[in-house]
């Protein structure tokens, strides 16, 4: 309560986290893949992209929870699944992007629309998916390491 | 279909029970809201929910949780009380009070709170199970 | 002996390492105990062929796990354990194939060092 920022619903910035921009909904620039192409394959690209998206979602969720009582704050949502799906269909991860949007859930009396319980559920879900993706990446590297001998 | 569909199910349960608690809180807050004789009384709000059918390819037909579809309202007639000093009273000294039973509302509050906690427990257990599934084959 | 056939079962093309009598196969079988009679014969019985089949199968196992990993990444996977089990299979199959290769090379070296 009484936090000085984000008093008006129009000024919510989800861009401060590096996902999306001020007007919400714009995509961030596609990231360069960190893995050297010779070592990484298609699945590793997808896993890497998913980790990017999930990390962004965790940051947005954390920001939403932090602003659960900020008057006028509109919750942010991260989407990367659609982009990842089309990127993996066309086998081109350079087009992959993580987008941040403002939630269109109904606002309560102080103009805030964060539902802390739903954000917490999202945190658990995203955390588990992150765990699964790190495990998948570990598996890929383990197979590579084993094959090298 | 998502990777961990149970979180959508329990999330919908959390939401429905939170709405229920909100409704009870509103009913309790307005327990003593008087209205003039010629206006309807404050009507207690009862949340109406429906089960969500599961997604097509589920062999057991497990549903997808619960959905808040609307509200039903208590009596608009309320209770007439004789309270001539109330500024809202008519010439016979009658004021309209809502017809809300405190014991009933408190029972509902406990029910809503318990089912909310129940859904949280389900999330905890589901997370443990999923974590073990993720750990399959980890050295 | 059951273990080896179980692992070979993970690698579709490989079948089991039967008592083919091929030079390379013997040390592997010997290392893990005698092969059971139910061990299926590799296609034409030669060790090279069974290795090729094993590699093809390994590839299939790995791409199965990869496909499920991509589905998990996009959130379209419905059962997590399907992926984790496939990944564990791919890991095991890879380790097994690498062991097989190492033993084969070892055996080849042993034969080359043999006094004639």
Task: Considering the chains and any ligands shown, give keywords for the structure.
heterotrimer; B: 139 residues; alpha+beta; two-stranded antiparallel ribbon; two-stranded antiparallel sheet; 4 strands; 41% helix; 17% strand; elongated; C: 116 residues; mainly alpha; 4 helices
How does this structure look, described?
The complex is a heterotrimer of chains A (149), B (139) and C (116). Chain A is mainly alpha-helical and 149 residues long. Chain A contains 3 helices and 2 strands, in the order αβαβα. In chain A, α1 (42-66) runs antiparallel to α3 (116-148). The N and C termini of chain A lie far apart (58 Å). The mean pLDDT of chain B is 91. In chain B, α1 runs antiparallel to α2. Chain B is an alpha+beta fold. The relative contact order of chain C is 0.16. Chain C is 66% helix and 0% strand. Chain C starts with a helix and ends with a helix. Chains A and C meet through α1, α2 and α3 of A and α3 and α4 of C.
- Mean pLDDT across residues of chain C: 73
Structural shape of chain C: elongated
Largest interface: A-C, 23 and 21 residues
As a whole number of angstroms, the C-alpha radius of gyration of chain C is: 16 Å
**Rounded mean pLDDT score of chain B:** 91
List the SSEs and their pairings:
The complex is a heterotrimer of chains A (about 150), B (about 140) and C (about 120).
Chain A: H1 42-66, E1 76-79, H2 81-90, E2 99-102, H3 116-148
Antiparallel strand pairs in A: 1-2
Chain B: H1 6-29, E1 45-51, E2 66-73, E3 79-82, E4 94-97, H2 102-134
Antiparallel strand pairs in B: 1-2, 3-4
Helix pairs in contact in B: 1-2
Chain C: H1 2-10, H2 25-31, H3 47-74, H4 80-112
């Amino acid at each position: 309560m009484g936090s000085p920022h984000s008093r008006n619903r129009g000024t919510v910035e989800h861009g401060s986290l590096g996902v999306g921009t001020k007007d919400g909904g714009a995509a961030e620039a596609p990231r360069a893949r960190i893995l050297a192409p010779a070592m990484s394959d298609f699945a590793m690209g997808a896993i890497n992209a998913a980790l990017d998206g999930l990390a962004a979602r965790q940051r947005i969720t954390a920001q939403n929870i932090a602003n659960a009582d900020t008057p006028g704050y509109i919750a942010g949502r991260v989407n990367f699944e659609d982009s990842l799906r089309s990127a993996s269909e066309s086998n081109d991860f350079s087009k992959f992007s993580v987008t941040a949007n403002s939630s269109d859930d109904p606002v309560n009396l102080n103009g805030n629309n964060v539902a802390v319980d739903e954000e917490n559920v999202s945190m658990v879900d995203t955390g588990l998916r992150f765990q699964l993706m790190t495990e998948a990446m570990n598996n890929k590297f383990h197979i590579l390491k084993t094959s090298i001998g | 279909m998502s990777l961990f569909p149970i979180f959508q199910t329990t999330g919908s349960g959390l939401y429905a029970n939170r709405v229920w608690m909100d409704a009870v809180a509103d009913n309790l807050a307005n327990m003593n809201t008087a209205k003039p004789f010629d206006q309807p009384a404050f009507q207690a709000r009862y949340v109406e929910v429906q089960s969500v059918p599961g997604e097509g390819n589920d062999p057991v037909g497990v549903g997808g949780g619960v959905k808040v579809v609307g509200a039903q309202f208590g009596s608009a007639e309320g209770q007439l009380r004789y309270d001539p000093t109330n500024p809202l009273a008519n010439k016979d000294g009658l004021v309209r009070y809502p017809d809300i039973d405190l014991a009933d509302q408190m029972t509902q509050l406990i029910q809503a709170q318990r089912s909310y906690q129940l859904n949280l427990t389900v999330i905890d257990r589901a997370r443990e199970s999923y974590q073990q599934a993720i750990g399959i084959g980890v050295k | 002996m059951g273990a080896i056939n179980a692992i070979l079962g993970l690698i579709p093309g490989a079948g089991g390492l039967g008592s083919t009598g091929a030079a390379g196969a013997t040390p592997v079988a010997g290392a893990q105990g005698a092969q059971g009679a139910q061990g299926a014969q590799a296609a034409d019985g030669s060790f090279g062929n069974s290795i090729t089949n094993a590699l093809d199968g390994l590839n299939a196992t790995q791409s199965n796990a990869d496909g499920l990993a991509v589905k998990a990444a996009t959130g379209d996977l419905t059962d997590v354990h399907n992926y984790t089990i496939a990944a564990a299979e791919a890991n095991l199959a890879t380790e097994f194939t690498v062991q097989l290769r190492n033993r084969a090379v070892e055996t080849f070296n042993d034969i080359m060092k043999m006094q004639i």
